[in-house]
Automatic annotation (TrEMBL):
<dbReference type="InterPro" id="IPR014017">
    <property type="entry name" value="DNA_helicase_UvrD-like_C"/>
</dbReference>
<keyword id="KW-0547">Nucleotide-binding</keyword>
<dbReference type="InterPro" id="IPR000212">
    <property type="entry name" value="DNA_helicase_UvrD/REP"/>
</dbReference>
<dbReference type="InterPro" id="IPR027417">
    <property type="entry name" value="P-loop_NTPase"/>
</dbReference>
<keyword id="KW-0347">Helicase</keyword>
<protein>
    <recommendedName>
        <fullName>DNA 3'-5' helicase</fullName>
        <ecNumber>5.6.2.4</ecNumber>
    </recommendedName>
</protein>
<keyword id="KW-0067">ATP-binding</keyword>
<dbReference type="InterPro" id="IPR014016">
    <property type="entry name" value="UvrD-like_ATP-bd"/>
</dbReference>
<feature type="binding site">
    <location>
        <begin position="274"/>
        <end position="281"/>
    </location>
    <ligand>
        <name>ATP</name>
    </ligand>
</feature>
<dbReference type="Pfam" id="PF00580">
    <property type="entry name" value="UvrD-helicase"/>
</dbReference>
<dbReference type="Pfam" id="PF13361">
    <property type="entry name" value="UvrD_C"/>
</dbReference>
<feature type="domain" description="UvrD-like helicase ATP-binding">
    <location>
        <begin position="253"/>
        <end position="524"/>
    </location>
</feature>
<keyword id="KW-0378">Hydrolase</keyword>
<keyword id="KW-0413">Isomerase</keyword>
Length: 718
């Protein structure tokens, strides 16, 4: 029997077809596993036939039913491979048109199989060449033909490359060019050197044992392309692949994701960063799978920032591990705070109750009043969080000599003494009430873990950018330092809580084990470009606290409409326009649950909810992950949007008064550094909200727009 493989492009079509067509696909596919090659060719029902005028002589189509055909790539003449690759499912005429234009080839550098629209490239190139003659500069002028060939660029693509004047034109070519070659060009366009591109892109795809001269063999090329092609081992696997709701991320990892997730072992903590939607969570989940497979007795702690996100991770891991209870039992999935509380309670069932932010603020206000202090409650709370809990300072003497990194006002010994008096009174008040802060619980848990020893073999941390040093100390104490102890993923551009860390000083040194993901799988390039402009005016500290982070090379493979930014004269008009927008998204084929609406405050969400409901649109208020099966447009605060995604997102109320929200901003005269940090946090919050959108993004305000959006070109007023 021949081998069968399914290309990622096949799923794009398969996902969209109705059930009876799917049944037809399954039936046809099963034949590839039951019949010999000769029998396949002879089978009347399958009707395996070549495609007239095809650019690729290996193209075949098969009959699914009277209306639908599958497109299949077969080995060419002289190719001994015994494999068929299903690449698409399309209506009859489209299938022939699609197949005739496509050319599959083996990349000379990566040795992977890639596909191009050869006809469209041939048609476009002469037009672009003409325009290029009068262009002041060409995008790839500095890169020699030799360097491009080394990176796998072939003749047809090279000619096209020499006609490209700018990034916009490269993007216009994007859907036509062969995948690996396109990726190489995108990195070069971002000014990565050919050597870097070889190291970061080509070397990771090229098989270690690739012969110097490549022989065109379909089976080998397919085996070299795990990021885009799935080999099907037998009937059971075929059944499973076609029956499960298809989650591409389970199967097709980008080489950069696969590299970080499935490296056999790391010498110590590993850090994976990347912009929103680059598959960090996916990489973390695959790492958990890998770690579980390595040692049958190991336990993994998988943490994230909120309970809702933890619930989402649980569902995803269940899917990735095929519901294997034995494996799932070896993973604890929780937030750091919940885990710390569990550790403390396990030792002392009567441990104090955690208090929320509001109550803490209230306590600090009392402290200021009772001691008649020259500080605001905000200043004290920040000093306590960043300096005292941040460095785990337990007594006055340590505090008096502690560095105050990140704080923008000097405190002499007399003032520090006063401040410590305040801390003592604050902690005393908590104790009296049988209470403790969340970070206090973390500190206690870290002590207990240090005393009693590690509980897990591996810790995997998602959304690592928002963890406080006290939380890191818990994680550090959960595992013994050593190989594969900590694997963390995060994006410092999405830091929306006020945490500053130096990971190295907390015993989580990732130097030499830091990786970056750059391909966004969630949002269109248009959404990314718009959202990235929000952060353009600022620099962002690196995840480990050492230097800065950047979104260089961050890009999407998806294309779509431009985001809309729109101002209104009143909130009422803004909400009315939202209702219209939601209606038009629904009319355009989106289900209500695929739409997310968010705002900085619940008050505006209340208004939106009322208006949507009275227009007959179902609504669901979410505090995190809502089950896909629950109907209704999701309404959420910006903070609760973290980690979620929707096909369409409306961000409401981006006004000057809400973003930045004055109450959350420390006045510059109180602490200039904290002032800047607060502003950045608010900016990141808007960035997080906007990058939840997959296909459509709409940002609106009434009255004066937020300064964060005002400078972006589309901002206009009605
Ligand atoms: N290799 C892949 N193939 C297909 N889809 C993928 C792949 N990797 C990630 N995705 C999809 O891209 C989206 C974003 O992935 P994920 O949530 O892991 O990104 P993230 O980097 O953690 O995002 P954020 O930081 O914004 O929360 C998800 O819908 C995920 O299923």
């Amino acid at each position: 029997m021949p081998q069968l493989a399914l290309a990622q492009s096949f799923w794009d079509g398969y996902e969209k077809v109705e059930k009876p067509v799917r049944a037809g696909v399954k039936k046809a596919m099963a034949k590839f596993q039951q019949l010999t090659v000769a029998e396949l060719h002879a089978d009347k029902g399958l009707h395996l036939e070549s495609v007239e005028n095809a650019r690729d002589q290996r193209m075949r189509t098969i009959r699914i039913n009277d209306f639908w055909r599958g497109v299949v790539l077969a080995p060419g003449p002289g190719d001994e491979s015994d494999i068929f690759l299903l690449v698409n499912v399309l209506p009859h005429d489209d299938a022939y048109g699609w197949a005739a234009k496509r050319l599959y080839s083996t990349n000379s550098a990566t040795r992977g199989l890639e596909v191009r629209n050869a006809v469209a490239i041939d048609q476009l190139t002469p037009l672009y060449e003409q325009a290029a003659r009068s262009a002041p500069q060409l995008l790839f002028a500095k890169i020699s033909d030799g360097a491009l060939r080394e990176l796998g660029v072939d003749n047809q693509v090279l000619r096209a490359v020499r006609s490209i004047v700018d990034k916009a034109q490269l993007e216009a070519f994007a859907t036509l060019l062969p995948e690996d070659q396109l990726e190489v060009l995108q990195y070069l366009a971002e000014e990565f050197s050919p050597e870097d591109v070889y190291r970061d892109v080509v070397a990771h795809r090229r098989p270690a044992d690739a012969p110097a001269e490549h022989v065109d063999n379909l089976a080998t090329a397919v085996a070299n392309t795990p990021a885009r092609i799935r080999l099907i081992a037998g009937p059971d696997e075929l059944q499973e692949a076609l029956d499960q709701p298809f989650a591409a991320w389970r199967v097709f990892l980008h080489p950069s994701q696969r590299r970080v997730a499935y490296r056999t072992s790391y010498g110590g903590p590993v850090q994976v960063t990347g912009g929103p939607g680059t598959g960090k969570t996916v990489a973390a989940l695959h790492r958990v799978k890998h770690l579980l497979s390595r040692d049958e007795s190991s336990r993994v702690l998988l943490t994230t920032y909120t309970n809702a996100l933890a619930a989402g991770l649980r569902d995803s891991l269940d899917l990735l591990l095929d519901g294997d209870e034995k494996l799932l039992r070896r993973v604890d999935i929780t937030t750091v705070d919940a885990h710390a509380t569990g550790v403390v309670r396990a030792h002392d069932a009567r441990a104090p109750q955690p208090v929320g932010d509001r109550e803490q603020r209230h306590l600090w206000t009392n402290v200021v009043r009772r001691l008649n202090l020259p500080f605001t409650e905000q200043f004290l709370a920040q000093e306590y969080r960043h300096v005292i809990l941040g460095q785990n300072l337990r007594d006055r003497v340590s505090y008096l000599s502690a560095p105050r990194r990140g704080r923008g006002t000097a405190l002499g010994p007399a003032r520090r003494n006063l401040l410590w008096d305040a801390v003592e009174l604050f902690e005393q008040s908590l104790r009296k009430g049988g209470e403790i802060t969340h970070l206090g619980i973390c500190a206690r848990a870290a002590d207990l873990l240090a005393e009693h020893g590690p509980t897990h073999q591996h810790v995997v941390v998602d959304e690592a950018q928002d963890l406080h040093p006290a939380q890191w100390r818990v994680l550090r104490a959960v595992v013994a330092p050593g190989p594969d102890d900590i694997f963390l993923t995060g994006d410092p551009h999405q830091r929306i809580y006020d945490s500053r860390v130096s990971l190295t000083s907390l015993g989580v040194a990732t130097a030499g084990r830091s990786f970056r993901l750059r391909v966004n799988y969630r949002s269109t390039e248009e959404i990314l470009t718009w959202a990235s402009k929000l952060l353009a005016p600022v620099t962002v500290d690196a995840l480990d606290g050492d230097g800065h982070d950047t979104l260089a090379g961050y890009r999407s493979l998806l294309r779509g409409g431009r985001p809309e930014a729109q101002g209104y004269s009143s909130q009422q008009d803004e909400v009315a326009a939202l209702v219209e927008q939601v209606r038009s998204w629904v009319d355009g084929g989106l289900s209500a649950s695929e739409i997310g609406v968010c705002a900085r405050f619940n008050l505006l969400l209340d208004k939106a909810e009322k208006q949507l409901k009275s227009s007959g649109i179902p609504v669901l208020r979410v505090r995190g992950q809502a089950r896909a099966s629950e109907p209704g447009v999701r309404l959420s605060t910006m903070h609760a949007m973290k980690g979620l995604e929707f096909r369409a997102v409306a961000v409401l109320g981006t006004t000057a008064g809400a973003l930045p929200f004055a109450r959350e901003i420390t006045p510059a005269e109180v602490d200039p550094l904290q002032h800047e940090a607060d502003l950045l946090r608010e900016r990141c919050l808007l960035f997080v909200a906007c990058t939840r959108a997959r296909e459509a993004l709409r940002v609106s305000w009434s009255g004066e727009p937020s300064p964060f959006v005002a400078h972006i070109e589309q901002a206009g007023s009605r």
